[in-house]
Design goal:
Layout (H helix, E strand, L loop, with lengths): L1 H36 L18 E7 L6 H9 L8 E7 L5 H14 L4 E5 L6 H12 L4 E4 L10 H5 L8 E10 L6 H22 L12 E4 H6 L10 H11 L3 E12 L5 H28 L5 H11 L4 H21 L11 H22 L3 H20 L1 H12 L33 H22 L10 H20 L3
Parallel strand pairs: 1-2, 1-4, 2-3, 5-7
Antiparallel strand pairs: 4-6, 5-6
């Protein structure tokens, strides 16, 4: 019975942690809905007065971006801003032939009068953080704009963001990500769904109440003074953006999030690219929890509620560990429930899974309708999108759990870039992309075995107990079977 009790305890704790996270999301929803009713009243620079227009440096950190560099530089060159107050730094750590074509395009742009410099390093020390830090040392701008290679800001982007820095307490202005290839495939739709939830519900929900949010690594503006005051960029975690964001806010710098300013970008279209991005984000979140935990707890500048939301924010990725544990233990729990009648009262804790799912369903609906519109037809579409999203996300739970555990236990790894493809529609090809990973990791094989494991879970529903089976967990095991099956098949046989 000892093993059974251990399984019940771990299973119950995991469900309770997921429920607590769901309650935090519900609180963010309330904050979000209140924020929708408030009016923008912050002071801004008056750009009709030349003396109020500050000098801005745009940093473009890139590494082997052969397929998107031309698009990136062409787009950035179109940004409207007084040329005498704009500098562009191409922080190019590339090691392939893109260096030559990038240099040629920069040379052509210089001839148009654009202040653009091609900055190369002898090594990739510190990865993206190192490149940003090195560029900052010679940046002319009072404000630093950062765009990753796959982002395509609108021409008036600087006019929509920089004016908010008239408030001297603001250290960062962050915009919402858009998705130029949202409808390319099921994979891109799932990624867009998850990111939309973060960039509406979470960012607005936290920012509107003064809780910590994070600069998202791109599509935002930093006050140079804020970067320096917070201790500058550091490359000891895989998410240098979260790291610097928290250090800045612990020093009482304010962040401004602009939900209504959308910055389009390209989502990864192959599962290997999505996996590497997810691994980096989830591991980086765990690394930053370990790095920031003590600083947040002992800080005298931060309210208790903000501390709680901050720690839960850094533990976001750790929820995958709870999801994975619940998934794995759900089959033993099915047998325990039907073998030991005296333990059945403990199984009321399973209701927390249903309650958590309902809360997530409600929270994400407000996100979905805000972007896609209200109405019965959109609600029906949302139901399909929600359950598809949840199913595929659970299929990534092993992959993301490994990333989280590596982050918490301090295992270091290189910053693995997400390959870009310059793809907007199904007409665009990706199979000849030189950056595609050809390797199949052992994790993928385990995911294949988990497909069989959850198939056994569905079979078990028919044979357990003496009352003709127990189908309470059958829908859950079906979703896990489909989710892990999708991830496994796409990882083995397909790339899109």
């Amino acid at each position: 019975m000892v093993v059974e009790y251990i399984i019940i305890v771990i299973y119950s704790i995991s469900l309770l942690l997921i429920f607590m996270y769901a309650l935090a999301q519900l609180n963010l929803l309330f904050n979000y809905l209140k924020a929708q009713k408030s009016k923008e009243n912050g002071e801004k620079f008056d750009f009709t007065k030349p003396e109020e227009i500050p000098f801005v440096t745009i940093q473009l950190p890139v590494f082997n971006e052969l397929y998107v560099m031309e698009r990136l530089l062409t787009n950035i060159a179109k940004i409207k801003y007084p040329r005498e107050k704009l500098e562009i730094q191409v922080l190019d750590d590339s090691t392939d032939e893109s260096v030559i074509s990038t240099a040629k395009q920069i040379e052509e742009l210089e001839k148009t009068g654009l202040d653009i410099v091609h900055i190369r390093r002898e090594n990739r020390q510190g990865f993206k953080a190192g490149a940003l830090k090195e560029g900052l040392e010679i940046a002319k701008g009072e404000f630093i704009v950062i765009f990753d290679a796959d982002f395509l800001p609108q021409e008036d982007w600087l006019y929509k963001t920089v004016p908010y820095f008239k408030n001297p307490e603001i250290g960062v202005v962050q915009t919402r990500w858009g998705h130029i290839n949202r409808n390319y495939s099921l994979l891109t739709k799932i990624q867009a769904f998850a990111l939309d939830a973060h960039f509406t519900l979470e960012q607005v929900g936290r920012n509107s109440k003064g809780h910590f949010i994070n600069f998202n690594g791109t599509a935002g503006v930093w006050r140079k003074k804020c970067i320096i005051d917070a201790g500058n960029w550091e490359g000891d975690t895989l998410t240098e953006d979260i790291d610097l964001s928290y250090r800045a806010q612990l020093k009482k710098w304010k962040f401004k999030y602009l939900e209504n300013v959308e910055t389009p970008a390209e989502l990864p279209v192959i599962i290997s690219a999505a996996r590497s991005q997810q691994f980096r984000w989830n591991k980086g979140g765990a690394e930053n929890f370990q790095k920031m935990l003590k600083r947040i707890v002992v800080s005298k500048n931060v309210s208790t509620k903000t501390k709680i939301h901050g720690l839960l924010h850094l533990l976001n990725s750790s929820m995958f560990t709870c999801i994975f544990l619940v998934a794995i233990l759900s089959i033993p729990m099915l047998y325990i429930k039907n073998e030991y009648a005296h333990l059945r009262p403990f199984f009321y804790v399973m209701s927390f899974f249903v309650m958590s799912s309902v809360i997530f369903f409600i929270c994400y609906w407000f996100m979905y309708r805000n972007i896609n519109g209200k109405g019965f037809k959109n609600f029906i579409k949302y139901i399909g999108a929600f359950f598809t999203f949840f199913t595929i996300v659970m299929g990534f739970s092993l992959h993301n759990t490994i990333a989280v555990l590596e982050g918490h236990f301090g295992k270091k790894s290189e910053f693995v870039r997400t390959p870009k493809f310059n793809i907007k529609s199904l007409k665009d090809g990706w199979k000849n992309n030189k950056y595609i990973s050809k390797n199949i990791s052992v994790n993928v094989i385990i995911e294949g075995l988990l497909v069989l494991y959850f198939a056994f879970g569905m079979y078990s529903a028919f044979i357990v107990g003496d009352q003709g089976g127990d189908f309470g967990l059958f829908p859950f095991h079906l979703m896990l079977f489909i989710g892990f099956g999708y991830v496994f098949i796409k990882s083995i046989f397909s790339k899109a």
